[in-house]
Write a structure and sequence with these properties.
The structure holds 2 protein chains of 2 kinds. Chain A is mainly α. Chain A is built from 7 helices and 3 strands, in the order βββααααααα. Chain A is globular and about 50 Å long. The longest helix of chain B has 28 residues, at 14-41. The mean pLDDT of chain B is 84. The chains are: A mainly alpha, B mainly alpha.
Chain lengths: 177, 136
């Protein structure tokens, strides 16, 4: 049996409390779910990583075909909606938005961003092999640095809040709700 | 006759960096606001398991921070459309993403009160160096 509970420290922030069997005192104990990444959560992060660069590349392909957009040619935005490349790009970016939102619901913003930074590499490969853009050694080094930065951050905690609510969770578990 | 390919703005163009900064600023505002909303909602999968998909969507949409953040992301999308039509993709996308990442780290510390420790700041420095290298 599960209940959504909230705390005074984080009003409106819901946690799932799982009811345990009643103890000797007859009071029901609760534990708060704070497990590490599950398989579906890895898949969500993978979707964030892949949909954004592929969607960007589709948009770039479509917009390159339309020409330069400036303040005197804003109508090109309307024409862009009829480009299949732009349409596929939009669909992929909607998928990105949904998966990104889901990721932010279970992890810190400062975790999700670096955890999905392999998208830089995907972007570089797409722009080089599909759009035939020049990738200099400096840009490859930049991408390498950015990916290395991911290593630092990804080894850290998933989110900040569990540490902050832990004392409260311990009180709830020992005293019952 | 095949039309000539448009000349894309490179890293030496101030206009390219104006595009990049605009896209990054909108992304940071949107992502921080959406993160604020999603933090209040909690783990979306667990909320969905209790309230169903409709309930989860309803909870998300009821967040004011989420709605304003979504507007910022929509504006970011149109700015991104303009940017990719003028700026080289291999410059524009990594540069905006890197700047957005750095801005998000600062905003996460200041506004979301996330634990941005020395490890994350070191990572931020790496990203900044990466952005500088992107210009060459």
């Amino acid at each position: 049996m599960s209940h959504i509970v909230s705390t005074d420290r984080h009003p409106g922030h819901a946690f799932i409390a799982h009811a345990q069997e009643p103890g000797p005192t007859g009071r029901i104990k609760f534990s708060v779910s704070r497990s590490r990444l599950k398989l579906w959560q890895y898949l969500v992060l993978f979707a964030v990583m892949l949909t954004a660069p592929v969607g960007d590349a589709m948009l770039a392909k479509g917009m390159h075909q339309l020409g330069i957009v400036d303040l005197h040619h804003l109508d090109l935005f309307w024409h862009a909606l009829f480009s299949p490349w732009v349409d596929i790009g939009i669909l992929l970016l909607i998928g990105f938005f949904a998966s990104y939102m889901t990721a932010l619901s279970f992890a810190d913003l400062s975790f999700v961003n670096p955890a999905t930074a392999l998208s830089y590499v995907v972007t570089a490969l797409i722009s080089h092999f599909w759009l035939h853009e020049q990738l200099t050694l400096g840009r490859w080094a930049a991408i390498g640095l950015i990916v290395a930065a991911v290593g630092f951050v990804a080894s850290g905690p998933l989110r900040t809040e569990p540490g902050e609510v832990a004392p409260l969770a311990r009180i709830d578990a020992s005293e019952g709700l | 006759v095949t039309p000539a390919a448009p000349v894309m703005l490179s890293a030496s163009s101030p206009a390219a960096w104006l595009w990049i900064l605009s896209v990054a600023a909108l992304a940071i505002a949107g992502e921080v606001l959406i993160a604020t909303g999603m933090k209040k909602v909690g783990d979306l999968d667990e909320v969905r398991s209790v309230s169903g998909l409709g309930g989860a969507i309803s909870v998300v949409l009821s967040s004011g921070a989420f709605r304003v953040g979504a507007v910022c992301m929509a504006l970011n999308f149109f700015a991104m459309l303009g940017m990719v039509s003028e700026v080289e993709l291999s410059l524009g996308v990594p540069a905006t993403a890197s700047l957005t990442y750095v801005g998000n780290a600062v905003a996460a510390k200041l506004f979301l009160k996330e634990a941005v420790d020395h490890r994350r700041w070191l990572a931020t420095s790496f990203v900044l160096l990466g952005v500088v290298l992107l210009r060459h």
